[in-house]
User: Fold this.
Amino acid sequence: METKETKELCTIAVMPRDRFSTLERCLEAIFENTKAPFELMVIAGGAPERVKKQLQDKFGSRVTFVFEPEYMNGCELRNKALSLIKTPLIVFVDSDIFVRPGWLETMLECQKETNADAVSPIIVDRDELIHTAGNDFYITEHNGRTIGSMELRYANQFIGETTNIPRRETDFCEVHCQMVVAETARKLKAFDDRFRENEEMDAGLIFKKAGCVQMCEPRSKVYLFYPELLDDVDDIKLYRWKWDLEEMQSNLDLFKEKWGIDINHRDHFMKYFRWVNHRVGFFSRLCPSKPSIALDYFFLRCRKLIRITLKGLAGLMTNQK
Assistant:
């Protein structure tokens, strides 16, 4: 399959990282907040028929839909997109990213002015807190081992309309939203199909080894949405497949084998992967359904109420002393 002939500079490829339910809202935000001409495609593996029909009915020919029967990891989705597009640039957007006005135009300006091979925006989450505004790959040598970790710049800082964050190079472009020069990515084979996670660090090292320029554009902002618990039945199976703990450990081992760098020092990443798995509630794991999701949220509210009550009692006792 090929996209239609186009004079647009850029293709936006939207893909589900671990959820299908946010695809519609993601596409709506792109149409509402993007002025620069673009091609738009959705690439998804294993999408439920209900989701496919809903998207096709709403967006029709405005979006090129590529649906594959089996689940696909992020690298497989990216490589599929790269094999189909005809534009020189492509922006990979996870389905839980909601773009904001000016996001694409400023990334295009950055790419043109710096001749960058890859560009990422500032990614915001929660109550207007920075998720990352560029990334550093910290590496240290210890007892004959090479240990690495990802550092998210300005993480958890509140962000308003403008900041003093400068445009500058980044060690790797955050996976949630990244623009790349398509031909460069194809030539370098920047996206290794073997990775289900940690692919942004792998790609960053590939680009860096080839002498490529990777930039973070601070005028471009997108919002990363994630719930405390999954709230849509269609997402549960994909989410559990994506974050399968055995697969995550295999990814860490693969990264160490490929680059000679241990990114799981002191179980750092596996702790994160176990935490991410907690977004699927106990009852939703047993029997994915709307009632089980409601039950998980009920117990989540109960736990919050208990914590607030205990904190209040502790404060009261402290004041009485």
Observations:
- The two ends are 73 Å apart (CA to CA).
- Residues 233-320 form one domain.
- The first strand starts at residue 10 and ends at 15.
- The CA atoms of residues 174 and 200 lie 6 Å apart.
